[in-house]
Amino acid sequence: MTKTIDNLETAAHPENLRRVAIDPVSRVEGHGKVTLLLDENDHIHQVRLHIVEFRGFEKFIQGRPYWEAPVMVQRLCGICPVSHHLAASKALDMIVGATLTPTAEKVRRLMHYGQMLQSHALHFYHLCSPDLLFGFDSDVAKRNIVGIVAAYPEIAKQGVLLRKYGQEVIRITAGKRVHGTGSIPGGVNKNVSIEERDYLLKDIEQIVAWSRESVGIARKLFEQNLDLYNNFGRFKAHTLNLVREDGAMDLYHGGLRARDMDGNTLFDHYDYSHYWDVIFEDVKPWSYMKFPFLRSLGPEEGWYRVGPLSRVTQCDFIPTPLAEQARKEFMAFNGGSAAGATLGFHWARMIEMLHSAEQIRELLLDPDLQGTDLVTKGKRQERGVGVIEAPRGTLIHHYKVDEHDQIIRCNLIVSTTHNNQAMNEGIRQVARQYLDGRKLTEGLLNHIEVAIRAFDPCLSCATHALGKMPLEVELLDAVGGMLSTLSRSSDGVFSN
Amino acid sequence: MVPPVLIFAIGNESRGDDAIAPLLLRRLASWLETENIAGQFELLEDFQLQIEHAADIAGRELILFIDAGMDTLDPYSFYRAQYNDSRTLFSHAITPEAVLSTFRQVFQKTPPPAFVLCVRGEQFELGAPLSPQAEKRMVLAWELLHALTRNAEASDWENRTTPV
Question: Could B93 and A462 be called an inter-chain contact, meaning their C-beta atoms sit closer than 8 Å?
Fold first, then answer.
């Protein structure tokens, strides 16, 4: 559908406009590309976030025996393999008709909170802190982790050690640092020994303390730059996330809750095993990534936002004391303004990191982790759906298995796909606020990237070969001729 | 006490030639056992390098990163990795040099000598098999790995470096 200039999705006369591409977006995973169409007066007519690489997840998984899936799906993504591992396991729990034992569920939860902790730590401390602590258009030579280490050495060190701790939780619960086999259909294949528990307990108080300080840093950033943080890329969105039966935040399991942009509940505690009755996926010719929407609102109006900002603002409470206190302060801050701000993602993400640290501490003290009843089975089913709140948002795995135990159909809706339209809305808002009518500079273009990074997108899953991940900005004339180009290599060096 | 030599293999075995390093590492693990020298080495595999790998460097005497590269010379490049404070992190994945820099900056210590064995790859798509070219290059890379692990000394490794 052709849109008006106001919403910046599709320009009315693109043939008369210059094109600027940010290709690929840096400090997000994979190959995102942003294109801007500008007229001769630098007014912006079209802004799009494109996903360059087609992932082919479903083809990769179809035809394999179902019990391989929890291990194989980890190879889809080098950023959040544990989330795929657990979402696939949950779907296959349904296939094998299992109801998890307390030990199995708690070991999986521990693994999940380890993943949340390390993912959120990396994002805040090392991918976003250069923008947040130095400024979006600060000297690009310093706007990086090296600059952070020089100016804020303790913050940089905490980021590394928080990340390392989360990885240790994963190693112990999944059995290995990568290619973990800990979660299997119907349960887990190992418990947590006393020695492993004590090893993790040794540092958990420090981890909780650092996580609490991180919430404080995020809040301080808001307080010091209230106007910027409230308004940067701000837009209203419907929301989607899992909640526990009592409405509490639950990142591992629950029912689906959707609310419209005014806070009205669209559905609540919805059984995700029939997610397709409430969520559908649209396609657009200019992007490989699908555009999910809430069926009741339709493809044009039904897009929504997932992830930390949705989860923290839409749960009724967080079931750990420090994170709950932080949530209340977040929701009350400046009349609730942070709860709708794109940069509110960062604060919300740190509240979730604190919650994850608290959950790890609570679980480590639970003797069920040392239980020996690890796997159950029940009546075999042909279809299974697993949903989990991954670091970036709701993650859906859906499998159909034939009588030979082969996966014959597979559908994955990953967190970043849920946020596809929301990210596009965010960058269009930033384009209106900061770029329209101005000569483009690296600092201004970085504003677009800052908006995308707030979502912590994982745009394609992890091929990391050396030599990839540059940033290229091309300025073309109306007929496609190159006017100028700016490149940044993977080690951060700019050249013309 | 950690083993003095740390060998990282970086790659995803379900993404075509990105499997080069994990496959070499697993073969190496078996070989080190049969040679009865496994105790000198710690072998770590991951999909990609990230900041926490800096913590794995602590206490080591020598580091080797094995990876696959798109623009690498055929069949491979073997070179000394230098930490460089001008290098920056722009992704969820970082370079060996950035890991060394992170180690130096965060732990305030000079990282141990570190080398990169980067084998040229051709295809990296999800579900792609190992390319025939990569299989041939792995034979040559394996010969180098033999030599490196038989004499795990920075001075010897320095003499074996190749053009980048």
Answer: yes
Report pLDDT for B108: 87
Residue whose C-alpha is closest to residue A104's, from A27, A39, A192: A192
Q: Which of B71, B92, B127 sits opposite A79 (nearest CB)?
A: B92
Residue A463 CB partners (closer than 8 Å, separation 6+): B12, B15, B18, B124, B125, B126
| A189 and A86 belong to one structural domain | yes
- Among candidate residues A418, A436, A453, the one where a domain is terminated: A418
Domains recognised in chain B with CATH numbers: 5-159 (3.40.50.1450)
Query: And the tokens for A3?
Result: 């849109």
Q: Do A57 and B126 touch (CB under 8 A)?
A: yes
Shared-domain flag, residues A276 and A337? yes
How far is residue A357's CA from residue A353's CA, in Å, rounded to a whole number? Answer: 6
Pairwise pLDDT comparison (A338 vs A478), residue with the higher score = A338
The answer to whether A260 and A266 are in contact (CB under 8 A) is: yes
What integer pLDDT is reported at residue A60 of this predicted model? 86
Q: Which residues of B touch A56 (CB under 8 A)?
A: 125-127
Lowest-confidence segment of A108-112, A219-223, A457-461, A463-467 by average pLDDT: A463-467
Task: Give yes or no: residues A195 and A306 share one domain.
Answer: yes
Q: State the residue range of the domain holding A491.
A: 5-53+425-495
Q: What ipTM does the predicted assembly reach? A: 0.84
> How many domains does chain A contain in total?
2
pLDDT tens digits, one per residue of A169-195: 999 999 988 888 999 999 999 999 999
Record the pTM: 0.89
A18 and A95 fall within a common domain: no
Residues of B in contact with A461 (CB under 8 A): 126
